[in-house]
UniProtKB/TrEMBL annotation:
InterPro entries: SAM-dependent_MTases_sf. This is Class I SAM-dependent methyltransferase. It comes from Mucilaginibacter panaciglaebae. Keywords: Methyltransferase, Transferase. Coiled coil: none annotated. SUPFAM superfamilies: S-adenosyl-L-methionine-dependent methyltransferases.
């Protein structure tokens, strides 16, 4: 199954999220950013509104890329690789992967490619789904099921699955220093709270469907 077939079932809203919850992690002095998997450019537009920065995007879906070109400065309609000619010689203050790394066959290659695209103090900011999110664990333990869905943590187009611990390890093994790893969009399920209490508050990561990783190349 090719890329277009894999994503053909996606609802239009899948490409429209602005991701306001990522804004607190963005460096205040950002001047130029690269949004990998920029969809229709909603997040990039938000960056421009809040920071007045230049925004480039990479988006493999042609329709989304065309829409993104109306919202951000430069859009590359292609898969993200180390050899994109449009990125040759470019340097960015921040490179974003908003729920993208888990869709890649080899996310390590993507992180390695970013080393040549970051300014001296540049950072990678990645939102990554958390497979230890309480509903997923409940499905495994109570219902004995690993059920794929059209979106979310169990998106059927995810090729990789991560916990907070393995997210950090992935960045560190690729030569990055993780400077933040924080949960976003907390769920606060009733039974999760009880479980976490009984386990001496050691399961707080299960409350978050995603974590944001901020990392820099030392």
């Amino acid at each position: 199954m090719n890329y277009k077939e894999q994503y053909s079932h996606k609802d239009k809203m899948y490409y429209l999220h602005r991701r306001t919850e990522i804004i607190p992690f963005v460096p205040a002095a950002i001047k130029i950013a690269l949004d990998v998997g920029c969809a229709t450019g909603g997040f990039g537009a938000l960056l421009k509104e809040n920071f007045g920065c230049e925004v480039w995007g990479v988006e493999p879906d042609a329709g989304s890329a065309d829409e993104a070109s109306k919202n951000i400065d430069v859009v590359i309609n292609d898969l993200f690789t180390a050899n994109l000619p449009q990125l040759a010689g470019k340097k960015f203050d921040a490179i974003f992967f908003n729920d993208v790394l888990e869709h890649l066959q080899d996310p390590d290659k993507a992180l390695l490619a970013c080393k040549h695209l970051l300014n001296l103090n540049g950072v990678i900011i990645a939102s990554i789904p958390n497979i230890r999110w309480y509903p997923v664990i409940l499905s495994l333990l109570r219902y004995k099921d690993f059920k794929y869905e059209n979106a979310g943590v169990m998106d059927r187009t995810h090729l990789r699955f991560f916990t907070k611990k393995s997210m950090i390890r992935m960045f560190e093994e690729n030569g990055y220093k993780v400077i933040a790893a924080e949960g976003i969009n907390p769920s606060n399920f009733k039974y999760y709270k009880i479980l976490n209490f009984l386990l001496l508050n050691t399961q707080s990561d299960m409350n978050y469907p995603q974590f944001v990783i901020v990392a820099k190349h030392p």
